[in-house]
Structure formats: C-alpha cells, structure tokens
Amino acid sequence: MIKYLYVLASNDTDCFLEQALISITSLKMRMPDAFVTLLIDDKTEKTLTEKRSNILKQVNELKVIKTNSQFGKAVCSRYLKTSMRQSVKGDFFYIDSDTVICDDLSEIENSPFDIGAVLDIHTVLNESLCKKAYQKNDKLLGFNSSFSTDKYFNGGIVFCRDKPECHKFFDEWHKLWLKNISKKMIDQPSFNQANYNFNNIIQEMSGIWNCQINLGGIKFLSDAKIIHYFNEVGKDNPYTLGNHKILQKVKETGSIDDEFVECLLYPKRNFDLHTRLINKRIRTIITEYFLPKKLRKN
Fold it and tell me: Burial letters for 141-162: b for 16+ Cβ neighbours within 10 Å, e otherwise?
C-alpha cells in the first residue's frame, strides 16, 4: 500500500495548514481509502488544537519529528521534506500542500521506477525561462546540475519506493541541503544536485501528475491528476484556491464548507474571470501599445 505524504510546518499566523487541509480533502474526495501520512515538526504539533486539529480527522498516520528550536517554519519544512524518506516507512507519493487533487491517483502504485518527478515548469532546462536563475543558484551553492544536465525537476510531487538506493538518494539530498542551510535556499537545487550525483536516478513523470498551472502547465490541464497552483498568500493568483480570501475563510472556520466542496469537485474550472493566456507575441503587443514608456523593458 502506498502512502500519500504531506509535510507541514505551520502555526496560526500562516495558511499552510489550510492549504494542506484543502489538498488532503480533495484527495479523500477522489480516494476515500487513501492512506495519508502527515509529517510535522514538534512545534507545529503544539498548535494542532481546537479548529486547527480538524486536519487530523483526514490523516491516517501522524509523524512528529523533533527539530532544532532555532529553525523557522520554512527551514523546518525543508528539513522534514529532504529527510522524509528516513521518517516514513513504505513506498510514498509526496504531495506539496499548495495543490488540489483532480483524479484517482492509485495508478502511481504501478510505476516502473523507484523515484519519479515532473520537470520544473514543464520544460527542459535549455528552453526554461528560469535557466539563468537556476545556474546562478547553483554557482552560489557550489553545485553543477543545472550546468551539466538538461532535466531539472520540480520537487512539488515526488514518488519514492522504500529501497536502499532511494534512502541513499535522500541522505544525499538532505546532506546537500544542510550544507547550505545558512544561505536560506529552497530545497530544489539540492534535489537536482543529488539527482546528478546519483547518475540521474529520478525518472521523468508526465506533467499531468504535477500540473504547474501558472508555469507552463496549461497543456496538461485537461488530463491533470494534480494541479499545483504555487500559492503565495497576499499576492495575486489567477487560480481560485490560491486566493488569500479563500484561504482566510478556511482558516476562520477550520473546515471545508459546502461552497468550497464545489470548488474541489470541479478543480479544473477554478480560475479568476479575468485570467488570460499571454504568449510572447501578446506580451510584446501589451508592452508596445499599452504600457507607459517608463515601464517598458529596454
């Protein structure tokens, strides 16, 4: 039996728990018998009282890891994520909290590979808009994966078998991330460097498993099993579930009401009415004809 794994580092000042509740609820709607494991730090555990404890009703297994008391939430989250293979027994399918499940995921259990992930922003590195940023980060960290391979993976969805080689890969990922903890870097550069060090052990999965809706995922939307909406609370997001007000409503009640269930039933239509697709040509037209000269890029 595969475990659907979530990582959470949160307190009552953020909306990370609410994101996880939304994602897990959408998973249980499609797969009532799915075995959900929630991996949290000891500081987060202390906050799971009253309405914040409702998330535990959706969870089959709670794993609490004691972390450095000096770690902030972001560091705790990445500590848990990069070491999750050592914390959880059995095959798992890790899912970021800023996601919504659109379909039954059970076929992932038949995957022919040991570790799988989807390409970051759904493209090879040489065609990626983020290539220079990735290489800048790697140079800062002393890594070379973005200079040496054309596949750069997104760490938002990770399939992993419980095999010795997979444990070794996670040991390497955790070690690389810890080495650069003072640089406050996200976990993805070390994820890809570990993959490079292990001779590209990560196998590419279809974009339907991690439809990065704001970053090239449109072509996978119709068949998407998981929508990854990259929520940054307080910032504009064309995807409804990434809206600050929506998350605040869940936060206030600690539950998913009937109106919200409708959003989860039809996740592929949850876009702001003002959402537009803009390709390079349209972006050029907007820049040339509508933006004031002082705002145009040279």
Answer: bebebbeeeebbbbbbbbbbbe
pLDDT, tens digit (0-9, with 9 covering 90-100), for 70-126: 899 999 999 999 999 999 999 999 999 999 999 999 999 999 999 999 999 999 999
What is the CATH architecture assignment of 3-272? Answer: Alpha-Beta Complex (3.90)
User: Shortest CA distance to 41 belongs to which of 62, 21, 68, 65?
Assistant: 65
Helix (H) or strand (E) holding 41: strand 35-41
Which helix (H) or strand (E) segment holds residue 177: the answer is helix 164-179
**What are the tokens at 229?**
């909406």
Which whole-number Å values give the CA distances from 251 to 45, 159, 256, in the listed order?
17, 29, 10
Q: What tens digit of pLDDT does each residue of 133-146 get?
A: 999 999 999 999 99
Q: Reduced to 3 states, what is the DSSP secondary structure of residue 164? A: helix
The DSSP-derived string for 68-135 is -TT--HHHHHHHHHHTHHHH--S-EEEE-SSEEE-S--GGGGG-SSSEEEEEGGGS-GGG-TTHHHHH
The structure tokens listed for 174 are 């955790």
Virtual CA dihedral for 231, 232, 233, 235, nearest 10 degrees? -110
Q: How far is CA 42 from CA 22, 61, 65, in A?
A: 22, 15, 6
CA pseudo-torsion sign 256, 260, 264, 265: positive
Contact 82, 155 (CB under 8 A): no
Can you name the residues that pair with 62 across neighbouring β-strands?
Answer: 38
Q: Say if residues 66 and 46 touch (Cβ distance below 8 Å).
A: no
Say whether 52 sits in a helix, a strand or coil: helix
Measured CA to CA, the distance from residue 214 to residue 219 in angstroms comes to 11
